[in-house]
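Dear H.,

Thanks for agreeing to be a second pair of eyes. The structure we're designing against is below in token form, covering all 282 positions.
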């Protein structure tokens, strides 16, 4: 009985071991089947998700392109205005230079005429007038001396009150003395006019002419430098505009064509001849 029971226990153990070893292949098969099923489902879902991603990328690229184009168009408008300003600056600079040269040339000619008139007329006439004043003074003194001498002779012979004679003679002597002092001053003025006043005024006028000539020479040099600066500004503005237009062309050639076809806001819009004909004309 004990032997039979042992055999029975041994058979059960082997049966249990066989069941365990036989279950492993079944479990592995189930796992592989699940993995293959998941891959199949992923493979089926991938084609559906790919078009959605591509649409999103295209929309993003289109939006970025639109943003870049808007930025370039704004920069193009600014660059175009800068170019226009550079051209106007050149024209304005030339007009200002022409106006300044006209003014300075007129001032130079006026200064030269003033100097020429001073040398030919002004200075000689003033000297002649002062000389004539001295001569008048000398003649006046001589006449007064003669009159005083005649009065003294006359009053000496006449029976006139002594007090009256002295009053008349004293008055004549005072007038003669003042005339002599005035003549001395006139001679000093004439000498000062010849040696100091006239030469100084003449020198000042010459300096005025020289200053005008230097101003004109400096203006000529400045306009040359200014022209170089203005032309450099114009070239830079043209280069900036060309670069922006190239960027627009690379991004959207049609946008550049439309932009170039637009008339300038400051230029008159051209119309066809048929549109400008008066009503009633064929």
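And this is the sequence the design step returned. I haven't edited it by hand at all.
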């Amino acid at each position: 009985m004990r032997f039979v029971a042992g055999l029975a226990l041994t058979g059960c153990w082997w049966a249990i071991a066989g069941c365990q070893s036989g279950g492993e292949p079944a479990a592995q098969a189930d796992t592989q089947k699940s993995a293959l099923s998941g891959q199949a489902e992923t493979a089926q879902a991938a084609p559906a998700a790919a078009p959605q991603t591509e649409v999103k990328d295209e929309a993003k690229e289109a939006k970025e392109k639109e943003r870049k184009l808007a930025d370039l168009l704004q920069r193009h408008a600014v660059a175009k205005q800068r170019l226009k300003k550079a051209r106007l600056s050149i024209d304005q600079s030339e007009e200002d230079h022409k106006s300044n040269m006209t003014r300075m040339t007129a001032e130079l000619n006026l200064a030269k005429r003033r100097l020429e008139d001073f040398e030919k007329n002004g200075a000689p006439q003033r000297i002649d007038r002062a000389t004539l004043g001295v001569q008048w003074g000398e003649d006046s003194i001589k006449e007064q001396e003669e009159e005083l001498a005649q009065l003294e002779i006359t009053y000496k012979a006449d029976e006139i009150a002594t007090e009256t004679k002295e009053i008349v003679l004293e008055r004549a002597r005072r007038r003669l003395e003042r005339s002599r002092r005035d003549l001395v001053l006139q001679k000093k003025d004439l000498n000062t006019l010849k040696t100091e006043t006239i030469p100084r005024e003449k020198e000042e006028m010459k300096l005025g002419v020289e200053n005008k000539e230097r101003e004109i020479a400096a203006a000529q040099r400045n306009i040359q430098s200014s022209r170089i600066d203005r032309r450099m500004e114009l070239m830079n503005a043209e280069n900036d505009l060309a670069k922006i237009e190239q960027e627009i062309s690379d991004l959207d050639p049609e946008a550049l064509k439309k932009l170039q076809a637009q008339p300038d806001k400051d230029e008159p819009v051209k119309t066809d001849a048929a549109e400008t004909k008066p009503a009633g004309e064929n």
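Two observations from my side: The radius of gyration is 59 Å. Confidence is low (pLDDT under 50) at residues 1-27, 268-282.

Warmly,
E.
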